[in-house]
Amino acid sequence: MLIQTDVLIIGSGAAGLTAALELADKLNVLIISKETLVDSSTWYAQGGIAAVLAEEDTTESHIKDTLIAGDGLCDEKAVRFCIENGKSAIDWLINSGVTFTKNDATDDFHLTQEGGHSHRRIIHAADATGKEVSDSLAAKVLKNKKIKILENHLAVDLIIKEKKCRGAYVFDKKKEKVLSISAGATVLATGGASKVYLYTSNPDGASGDGIALAWRAGCELSNMEFNQFHPTCLYHPDAKSFLISEALRGEGAKLKNYKGNQFMERYDSRKELAPRDIVSRSIDAEMKKTGNDNVFLDISHKDTDEIKKAFPTIFKKCLEFGFDITKDPIPVVPAAHYTCGGVKTDLDGQTNIKNLYAIGETSCTGLHGANRMASNSLLECVVFAKSSARSIKLNLDSKIIDLPDWDSSKVIRAGENIVIAHNWDATRRLMWDYVGVVRSNNRLEMAKEKIKLIFEEVENFYKNFEISSDFIELRNLVLVARIIIESAIKRKESRGLHYTVDYPELSEQAIPSSLSKDNMEF
Ligand code: FAD
Ligand code: SIN
Predict the structure, then answer these.
(1) Most exposed among 46, 185, 219, 405, judged by the fewest C-beta atoms under 10 Å?
(2) Domains in the chain, start-ordered, CATH in brackets?
(3) Measured at the alpha carbon of residue 186, what is the angle toward residues 154 and 171, in degrees to the nearest 5?
(4) Which residues form the pocket of ligand 2, taking CB atoms under 6 Å from any ligand atom?
C-alpha cells in the first residue's frame, strides 16, 4: 500500500510535534509514531528547558556555559544559533499552550538551576516539564486538520532514490504489514539510543532507530562515542528507569556515600553542580572505592512543603518505593540518559542526503559537543524543529515518484523469539559492562568482537525471516551499539563523556568524529 504526503515526520516527541505544527500552515504532514503520540523521552523530561529569561542573565553566559560543558567539541555556530533563538522558542511553547511554573510572589516564571549553568535559567512545569510540553503540543496537533497521525507505526528503512530521500517503509504494528510512504521531505525525529545500555533513564522506545535508518541510508553520523550518563537515577530493583532530576541538586540536594559523608568536593570545586560527566564519574569512583552499589542524594534538610511543591512527581514516586524524600536520603546510581552524537545536520536540520532532515536527540547539530548541558535538549528540539520547518517550506521537492513495494518474498515467518530476546539482553549488558562511564582499550576491543557476532546473527535473521516490531528495534539497537563501540575506539583521548583509562588526557586538537558506511569497515 502506498501513502503520499508532503512531509513525513518520524517520531512524535518535542521535535516531531513542533515541526508538524510549524509545517502545517502550508503543507500536509503525516506523523508516524511507533507507540502513542505521547510515548517519548519528551514526556518523561523533568527539570525543564534552558533559556535566557532572567534580567541578570545573558546569551553570552549561556553560550559560554554550553561551550565549557561541551569540552571543546561544540560547534560554536550551532550553540549561538540555538541559544539566541531560546527566548523565542519558549515564547512559541507558551503560545502553543504550555504552562510553566510561576513564582508565588511576583507572577514571573520560576527559574531553577542545574549543573554547568552559571545562572538560574531553567523554565519548568514543576518536575514534570516533559509531560506538560508533550500533552500540550499533542493536543494542538490532534486539532490540526493538515496533520495526519499514524500511531503504532514504526519506520523500518528510508527509501533513497538517486541520492534523494523519497519517504520510508513503515511497519503497521497491528496489521503486521509494511507500507510505503512517499514524501517530498522526510524528518527523522526519533529520539536517542540510550536503550543500548542495560540501565537507562529512557523509555523502551529509545533504541536509536533514526540513527540506524540514517546510517543504512548513507548519512554521516557524528560524535557517537559521547553517551551521557545521568548521575542520579533511583536505585531500586523495581524502579525501572526513574530519574531524580538534576533540579534537586540545583535546589541544594547533596550527594552522600554510605557513611553519610558528602564527597563531591573531593572531585570538583563545583561539587553537585559540576557538569554531568564529572558528577557521574565521581559517583562511579566513589562506588568503586567503597564497594557499594549506589550513593545517596539528600534534600531532607530543605523545608518539607517546599520540597513537596517543587518536586511533586519525584516525592510521590519515591514514596511508592518507601523513601520519604523530605526525611530520607534517596539511593541513586548513574544511568544512560542522552545520546550526544547522532545524524549530522546543518542549522536547518538538513542531513547530507537531500530531502532528509534530522531533529532533536537523533541529530547531531554541534550544540552539545562532548557533553550536553542539562536542559539544553528540549531547547534544541524546538529551535531546530522550527528551522527545519522553515527550510522544508522553502525547498520542498514536490516531484512524485513511484516507490517499490516492500519485498518479503524471500523470507518466512520466524517460529520463535529467543534470538530477539537473547540478543537484546546481551547487547545491553555488553554495552553497560564494556562501554560505560569509564572505558579502556581492552574492554572496547572485547566489545568490538562480541558485538560483531551479535550483529552478524541479527543480520542473518533479517535476511531469512519476516520482520516484527521487536526485531526492527533489535536490529537498530545492535547497529547503533556497534557504531558507538567503533567511535569510542577511534577516539584516542578523554574528552567530555568519553573517558578512557588508556588515554586519560585531552588532545590538543578537538575534532568531532565522523562516521558513515563509506569510512567504516562493516
Ligand atoms: P523523543 O521525545 O524521544 O521522541 C522520539 C519519538 O520517536 C517517539 O515518539 C518515538 O515513539 C518515535 N520513534 C522512535 N523510533 C521510531 C520509529 N522507528 N518509527 C516511528 N516512530 C519512532 N531534556 C531537557 O532538556 N530537559 C529535561 O528536563 C530533561 N529531562 C529528561 C528526563 C528523562 C527521564 C529523560 C529520559 C530525558 C530527559 N531529557 C531532558 C532529554 C529530553 O527529554 C530528550 O532529549 C528529548 O525529549 C528528545 O526529544 P525528541 O523529540 O528528539 O525525541
Ligand atoms: C533532569 O531533570 O535532571 C534532566 C535534565 C536534562 O536531562 O536535561
Answers:
(1) 405
(2) 230-336 (3.90.700.10), 418-515 (1.20.58.100)
(3) 15
(4) 46-47, 245-247, 374-375, 377
